Amino acid sequence: METLEEQAPDLFEEGAKLKEGIYVALDIALEDGKYVLKNVDENGNILNEDIGLFTKKEELTPFFEKCRKVLQLSNPVDKNKIFNPNLKIFNVTCSPYAVGFTKKGIINNIEKIRKDGTTVGKSGILNELTKQYLKKAEEYVEEGQSSAWFNALKSWLTVYFWELVDKIGFNDLKDGYVIVFFHKEVPIVQYKKPYLKYVGENVFNKAEFNTSYQDIIYGVSDSLNTFNDKKRFLKHQSASFRFNYRVHGEDAQLVLKFYQLSKNKQLPNPLPIFVDKEEANLNADVVKLFNNERVSGYSEIIRSLLDLRKTNLQNFYLMFVQKGQIIDLDFVPVFKYTLKDKEENDFTLKEMFGTEPVMYFNSKDHNVFDFQFMVVNPIFNKQLVQETKAGALWIKYFDDLEIKPDYGLTDAIYNLLYKYRKAWYDFIYKSKQQTITMTMIDEMFKDSIIDDLRHDEELKKTAQMRKKLSLWFGLQPLFDNNFKTNSMANKTVELQTKIREIAQTESFHITTDDEFAFAAGQLIWKLLIQSESANRSHALLEPFLQKTEPVLFKQAIASTFNMYKYKFALYPTKYEFDKLLSEVMGYDPDILNMKEHLPMILAGYFSESIFKKQ
Fold first, then answer.
1. Residue 130 phi, psi dihedral angles, 5° rounding
2. Inter-residue contact 111 to 207 (CB < 8 Å)
3. In whole angstroms, what is the distance from residue 102 CA to residue 87 CA?
4. What is the chain's mean pLDDT, rounded?
5. Who is most buried in 63, 245, 441, 521, counting CB within 10 A?
6. What is the pTM of this model?
7. Cβ proximity of 311 and 250 under 8 Å
């Protein structure tokens, strides 16, 4: 944070985005012993130049820019550390020169019934303003001009608060809008001193937790710790110590600044934090790219850094923040922007089962973030990475998920995401390639494809399942140490030719388990396509895949053949279908667990049919 303050000072000056609501500058002066409002017209209305309703569609005019800076230098450290802790009405600002609240806060409290049975009402809200908010604010006022400004605002609002609320059109405002009154004559720089004093007193959790060492106060950072004294099941029961660590005030303020930048969305998420002294300047580069050059995506930031430095990125921490909490923090020794296979060679992923040649991924042309979008996302029915209406990418590695079958987020995909998305995050963003194994790849694709089978209607998911199967087999060089001796992709290409030869040649026979499984897949496709149902579906394949023993598997094929045998003509000599059916029914596989044959059954099923006329 100190490096950022030196190299990107504007980052801290720009602060938060302005909240939607109405902002009013009050020019209050003392005349003849009475405080009066100077910036009003003949009807007593605030001059147009000193009042404004800000919405997301509004441009940041000089007036609104001043309002933004007022908010920046009066922003509460925490919702529990405001000047009005009782009813928490005036919770938008913490400053002796500004009073901020929301319409909702007024509405929710004005009719509230106290414990003694009385209603809060307008008088109660005004009492909260004068005896809580302004009384606390006065603690941060120094003598002299500072005191004069504060007394002017205090005295005038005490008398005219509700009249001003009515004049700004309170009833017409949206409930969520903020309402901020501030002293017009106070220079922005004068907001800073009382605010820094307020922050310094409130960055620690509780004063009773503070301790002094060599005249320096150390305490528990309020940004990093919460204490669940009233929630017994959230309290640590077995720790031998009460506090994990304390920090001194300056560090606590740096931590607070970090969380404020994160909350204001002035930092990318995830955020790389470079720790090597020689690369510390990269931290400022990251922030400048994100804020000044509007490079919003993490992948674009990494690409820009690589273009700037012309070298690998290394020795950085990667932090992911969600809802004001650090969800993930890990060290990345070296980041790999491009992917290679197990032998450090380039690789490609292309369609293996469709008739049209399609290239899904080429490591020469694509990077690891392309891999995330082009290869990983399809496993999860494109539910891990989605494009928003604004064109940005919504990446859900840490989001809460909701099952939505109509959009592809079925029970099975939901479970796969929760089980494997963190491993993929580590693989892609931290270059921890050991987090994904071939066993995991097998399970992900198997479960995803079977889920597609179950939800298929009218064979609409054919292309989607063929793509997943192609990616599954094609990923072996990246994750399987034995891919050269057990390449599913090579086997599939060979089997597409071999099974055709077996079907067409009387003297050729099935001799391996892979040939058996692939041929069975071809037969099942040929049989199921005979269905005259109005809704033919790949779901009919699943019962075959559920068989665990070869004899039961063959019985399922035989039963299906009996159902459709009237569609197959009988000839004196065997033809392709007849020949292949006899080969499959007559072969006894060495591996008796049919679940082990699932990949090759699927390969045969989704390959171009050998029974198709050439």
1. -80, -45
2. no
3. 13
4. 88
5. 521
6. 0.80
7. no
